[in-house]
């Protein structure tokens, strides 16, 4: 039994136990809607968290610009859709713009500072985020916009008695495909294994002839694609403006990455679901009275403190 527990790991067991307990309590308190919406919202957070983890694993720095890739992609999607570009093509172009932005950020800002202290890189990413926000303010005059969802008309189908729109099911499907693709990439491909090697032993990776700096470009492009997907998928749910995805997704995404373990990709998804459910339940009044302002943030912070007190490295961290 002890060997089995050691093989599985304490982190997944703790996470599974907390998750089962939360689901049971929410169902008993008739909070099915908060549970379902929270899980799907958390999967959106996990896209940002995955990008944060990728960059952290490759450069050891927290990227303030991660969610801004989503804002830029959302603005590009909006501009193309209102000009009658087919939605799928518009989404692909918006995603390509986000990836190109990630490449430029790495080549123009990150690579010249590659050997600088990590805090310098952190401040540099914050500067890029502020520049991006300023540019979107300049082009849009802080006006709020709406973009149509990718799948319209059909109401979707129910889970636990709650009608879930097809746009939300699209988030679930995309996160599932992205998670599977990343798992295959990092475990089954030579390039993915090289990225992992560069994140763990950069000096040894350089010595065997693999350029760590070139791999850095690939990681930033992957992270930008994940941020762009978050903006494209979650943006249609409400009006958006400059810094919209950054203000709504950056802190939850960072919290999700910390809860799951800052170096764990599966942990980023698990952490995103935990943050999404916690915020949804706190905002719905299912745990705290409706009179408590910022109930979602309060519950999320309480979960973060509880999990880190039990397991400081995160649920799936090492």
Brief descriptors of the model:
two-stranded antiparallel sheet, 2% strand, disordered N terminus, 13 helices, 318 residues, mainly alpha, 73% helix
Mean pLDDT: 80
Q: Rg to the nearest angstrom? A: 20 Å
Can you count the helices?
A: 13
How far do the termini sit from each other?
22 Å
The run of helices and strands is HHHHHHEEHHHHHHH
Q: Shape, please?
A: globular
User: pLDDT below 50 for ≥5 consecutive residues: which ranges?
Assistant: 1-8
**Largest pleated sheet:** 2 strands, antiparallel
Q: How many strands?
A: 2
Provide the structure class: mainly alpha
Percentage of β-strand residues:
under 5%
* Widest sheet: strand ordering: 1-2
Helix-residue proportion: over 70%
Describe this structure in words.
With 318 residues, the chain is an all-alpha fold. The protein has a domain at 32-153 and 160-246. Helix content is 73%, strand content 2%. The chain has 13 helices and two strands, in the order ααααααββααααααα. The protein has a two-stranded antiparallel ribbon with strand order 1-2. α5 packs antiparallel against α10 and α12 (265-284) packs across α13. The radius of gyration is 20 Å and the shape is globular.
